[in-house]
Structures are given as C-alpha cells and as structure tokens.
Design goal:
alpha/beta, 26% helix
Length: 205
C-alpha cells in the first residue's frame, strides 16, 4: 500500500512570529472517502529537510495541495521543489491540485499567466482534448475553480488533456505517473466518481 505525502499551505500566526502549516479540513473528509486505498502523511514545510522526513516515514507518492500562490512562501516553494526532484528520479506518483499543478509545471520550467475572473470562485465546464486516462468513458463536466493564475502553455514533458478559455485545466506527464488538475476535489459536497477514479489510478494498489 502506498503512503502519500501531503503538502501543506503556510499559515502565519496572528500577532506574533510563529510559522505554521495547515491543511483544509475538507481534505480529511475526502481522504476518508477513499476508504483505505492508501496511507497518508502530512509533510511540513522544512525545505530539503522535508524530503528526509518523508523518506524516513516511508512516503512513496505525493499530493501537492492548493493554497498560496507560487512565490508567496519561499519555504513551501523550496519544499515542493525538493520533493519533486526526488519524485522525478524515483518515479513516484504525484498529483498536483490547483497550486500543486502550477508547482509541477514550474518544476519542469513552465510559467504562469493571469487567469481572469472566469476562473476564480466559480464553476465552469471542462473542454477535454482527449479522454481522461483515469476515467476514459467520462464526458466533459463542470468543475469548481478558485485560481487567479493559470497555465497557458504547459512545460516540456507534459500533455494537456483539458482546457477552459485558454487555461490548461488538467495535464499528465508523458513519462512519469504525474497528473495536474486545477479544480479542488476536496471542495465538492461529495467526491465525484471521476475524482475517486483519479486517486485510485495514481495511488491505488
């Protein structure tokens, strides 16, 4: 059974200096719904030390969660880049969600653009350019959207599979078991079949 390391957003303490890390509570509900397909471990933002922590606890896959724009917290950016460097050489499965997808793209040399108001705090359709590898019979659907930045041109080595108004909404790596999605599975009232299939595709036995 895989152990998935879950990255955390940075969360400043109010009125005093105490750096903290946090995870939206919605993720606990979503992960519970996966019904034991994999184990998971929260990963603090410690830069290179996070990789040593992850390896010492048997992590062999990554979930890069959302929150925090790239460049907002140097320690989180460093943490995820060190984790991805190891994941690349070790062939770990990786899922990037929203900011996590942007982090994957940045690791491979890609850039971000302003996404526009039609991508923030709304629901919009997916424009599929090929079947979803984890749910090949799925039809184009509506997804939530909470990002102000987006990916207009994917980095080398990535293949886009869904768009919305010029912004890539999902991609897969052409050689590694890496997937990026811009929507938030954990923010739905209940996990969708396609999102459940995605987690089983990447992290299941």
């Amino acid at each position: 059974m895989r152990k998935v390391g879950i990255t955390l957003r940075s969360s400043d303490a109010r009125d005093y200096d105490e750096p903290r890390d946090a995870l939206a509570r919605d993720w606990y509900r979503f992960l519970t719904a996966t019904k034991g397909q994999f184990q998971w471990l929260l990963l603090p933002n410690l830069g290179q030390d996070t990789l040593e922590y992850a390896l010492s606890h048997g992590v062999d896959a990554l979930l890069l969660t959302g929150g925090d724009d790239l460049g907002s917290y140097a320690e989180r950016d460093s943490t995820e880049q060190h984790l991805l460097a190891h994941a690349s050489s070790a062939g770990w499965p990786v899922l990037g969600v929203c900011r996590g997808m942007q982090s994957l793209n940045a690791f491979l040399g890609g850039q971000l653009v302003a996404a526009g108001t039609e991508h923030h705090a709304c629901v919009h359709p997916l424009e599929l350019v090929c079947p979803l590898p984890w749910a090949p019979s799925a039809q184009p659907c509506q997804v939530n959207s909470f990002h102000r930045q987006g990916i207009a041109t994917v980095a080398d080595g990535l293949r886009p599979i869904a768009w919305h108004k010029g912004i890539c909404e999902a991609f897969i790596h052409q050689a590694l078991p890496w997937v990026g999605i811009m929507w938030h599975p954990e923010r739905e009232p209940a996990p969708t079949p396609q999102d459940q299939q995605l987690f089983a595709y990447l992290f299941g036995d």
